[in-house]
Specification:
The protein has 212 residues and is α+β, with helices and mostly antiparallel strands. It is 51% helix and 16% strand. The protein folds into two domains: 9-110, no CATH class; 124-205, no CATH class. The protein has helices at 12-25, 28-31, 33-53, 57-77, 87-120, 191-205, and strands spanning 125-129, 142-148, 154-161, 168-175, 184-188. The longest helix is centred in the middle third of the chain and has 34 residues, at 87-120.
Length: 212
């Protein structure tokens, strides 16, 4: 599995189609509440199936292939008709949900290993996410995430492209342990300044008592 999105390359086109299914169904909440509620109910019927049979990324494709028949059987038992229902979209929504669960589990396990390895090596920062550098220059946002071993603070560095100018934009965010929102955010135009600022932040956290 490559770093970055965390989705195996062979699964990415499928994952895109599952996200597209969510994009087609969930906006129905604003335009057709009956259709939306039915779709959500059917996705809910599939969630236990995916949780049971999908233990890894490799299991997802096979589960998606058999899911339509599982859905029809579950709906019939509940007395719900699937006539006129976009079954493929419902399956895609359930698959997308299970994929996010797998990604979360894998990310957590990878972070734990990275933290353990960094601590054993005497490092003060653990790299827990890096982008696929083959995408550099393609306009795809790139992100690096490091965790301060002692405090659990996160240093998130990003590179993206300005839609108006096409120029690279550099960002730095710092998040305290357990916080979902950044306690500090910088936006920079210079790559060198971006690198220097990140190093200054690392050094500041490495001072005794920092991050507590």
């Amino acid at each position: 599995m490559e770093s970055g999105s965390g989705i195996p390359p062979e699964l990415r086109s499928r994952a895109d189609s599952w996200r597209a299914a969510e994009g087609a169904i969930y906006p129905l909440a604003l335009t057709d509440t009956d259709a939306y509620e039915l779709a959500v109910a059917l996705v809910g019927m599939l969630r236990p199936h995916f949780a049971t049979v999908v233990a890894s990324f490799d299991d997802l494709v096979a589960a998606v292939d058999t899911a339509p028949s599982v859905l029809r059987s579950a709906a019939a038992r509940a007395g719900i008709s699937t006539v006129g229902v976009d079954t493929e979209a419902v399956v895609g929504c359930a698959a997308a949900a299970r994929l996010r669960e797998l990604l979360a589990v894998n990310t957590s396990a990878f972070e734990e290993r990275s933290m353990t390895d960094a601590k054993a090596a005497g490092l003060t920062w653990a790299v827990v996410a890096e982008p696929d550098l083959a995408l550099a220059g393609s306009g795809v946002p790139l992100q690096w995430i490091e965790v301060h071993v002692a405090s659990g603070a996160r240093l998130v560095r990003g590179i993206s492209m300005d839609d108006q100018t096409g120029e690279a934009k550099f960002s730095i965010e710092v998040m305290a342990s357990g916080k979902g929102r950044p306690t500090m955010r910088l936006e920079l135009d210079s790559r060198q300044e971006w690198l220097e600022e990140a190093e200054q932040i690392r050094l500041a956290f490495d001072q005794p008592g920092a991050g507590n």
